[in-house]
Amino acid sequence: MEMKELNELINNLPFDNMKNIYSSNNQTLSIYRPSMLSERFKKYDKNKNFQIFLQDGTDKNFRPNHLRLLIDLKLRVRDVPEAKQTLLEVFDRIFYGQDPSELLEMLSNYHFTSFINPIEITLYLAQLFIAEQNIGYGGVSKYNPPSLYLQGWIRTFIDSEKEIDQIVLRICNNNPPLVKYTCCDDKNHKKYNPHSRPLWYIQ
Prior knowledge:
Layout: H1 3-12, E1 17-24, E2 27-33, E3 51-56, H2 66-79, H3 84-95, H4 119-136, H5 148-159, H6 164-172
Antiparallel strand pairs: 1-2, 2-3
Helix pairs in contact: 2-4, 2-5, 3-4, 3-5
């Protein structure tokens, strides 16, 4: 589904309900909307809060974090360097609202042997994380939209020539992505361009 449909689904999901979003290769992505928040998240607006779960086979489901997505992408581009530009474009299109299922064909000619999740799960996980940031971000973001922080790091992990541990250290230290990956999509930045298209940062 497109981002606008996903946002509507999330906002209309009743409290304390789990909804499967996508299943592939015995893995399932789901969302859950809790009516009660833990002490850690007590300052969040429960009406905007939802949680993402991943289940692999019969294993207990768990809440994946951003590093699972980002490391998966870095492994793929190291494994198949010629897929870099296509990966960047696919995840840009997801950020701009396109349905991940419409983008799988763009990656069908690449044979990845290093990854964490099947590519379909990776695409839908990115879409869910972007929706999560835009709907439920609990603080005051320097980015508009808030999901641009994550999208900047998605672009970094795919595009950067730096080693994976160096990039992971930067994000784990709460450093922002380089402004070259965010400025034209950021409504708070002087270089914002409402007509930005995929791959603007490498053209």
